Amino acid sequence: MEATTPLRNLTDHGVKPSAQRLAVMEYLMEHLTHPSADEIYCALHPAMPTLSKTTVYNTLRLLTEKGAAIQLTIDERNVCFDADTTPHAHFLCTRCGKVYDVPLRETNLERQACIPPGFRTEQEAIYYRGCCARCASQGQADC
Amino acid sequence: MEATTPLRNLTDHGVKPSAQRLAVMEYLMEHLTHPSADEIYCALHPAMPTLSKTTVYNTLRLLTEKGAAIQLTIDERNVCFDADTTPHAHFLCTRCGKVYDVPLRETNLERQACIPPGFRTEQEAIYYRGCCARCASQGQADC
DNA sequence: CCGAAGAAATGAAATCATTACAAATTAGTT
DNA sequence: AACTAATTTGTAATGATTTCATTTCTTCGG
Fold first, then answer.
1. B55-61, long-range: CB within 8 Å, 24+ apart, which pairs?
2. Right CATH number for B6-81 from 1.10.10.10, 1.25.40.10, 3.90.226.10, 2.60.40.10?
3. What is the domain class of A87-138 according to CATH?
4. What are the pLDDT digits (tens) for B5-40?
5. Tens of pLDDT along A34-66?
6. Taking the model in full, what pTM does it have?
7. Cβ contact, residue pair B126, A130, below 8 Å
8. Which helix (H) or strand (E) holds A129?
9. A-contacting residues in B 59-78 (Cβ below 8 Å)
10. A78 CA, C19 C1': separation in Å?
């Protein structure tokens, strides 16, 4: 699934490429660490000094609208993004703040809940919160 | 599960009662519509003019820490809250913004994903987004 | 190759949810 | 009543995100 390029990933999802959009897409594909808009901006800005934060926000919205990326609301502090659009869950460590990918046992997630008739599901997400292995081993009493 | 009172719901979860905490808890139990902190504040303020928004935020954090309520991050605009702490999923209609409860087929949600060893899960959530039945029927082309 | 029209990007200012903090109030205890 | 701790209050700060008017690119016909 990493066999595609940032450019193809844009065009395949109907996003007209630009230098900025390519940069954001490339960053997302190379950093599957669920970065926030601000993290992406700060990482890209040195090499692309004219990049504006608004453009990063606009691009991320476009990417999620077109299905080229996923928007995660697992962290109440800020939205973060994932270029891996295949079905998987996420785990937020409330100690270190890191968001981990978690594989799913079944891919047909909709089967899990009884969505009432007439409702049309467009996105689904499974979020876990807790303490990750690293924090648990290094951690204090509450871990 | 609605067989308890706001007062009991507080004390059973180790929350020392106060007029403000009771008011917030009572509002949550009577309005299972997943209100935000601001909605709760605006609803309670007329009858309790000295109530401050900070207290609402503090109380909601306390309630979720003690397990007397659930914090939902399904809406990226603001966190919202649910006094129903039994396992169930949520559906956000991106048209009207309403958050619906969705029953689960299986209650052992952790079985669903492969949480790596050493990770300790403290909360789990299943979120759906899409178009609710009401918006779909009233709705425009995209519904 | 040139210029118009539309699309995209920029940057500054506004918005809005949430938090920080210090002062005031209330509750609990001797 | 007096004292201490817990709670509440209100204002100010923070910080993510959006708005919007202006500027810069693209594209495309002539």
1. B55/B20, B56/B20, B56/B24, B59/B20, B59/B21, B59/B24, B60/B24
2. 1.10.10.10
3. alpha beta
4. 999 999 999 999 999 999 999 999 999 999 999 999
5. 999 999 999 999 999 999 999 999 999 999 999
6. 0.92
7. no
8. strand A120-131
9. 71, 73-76
10. 14
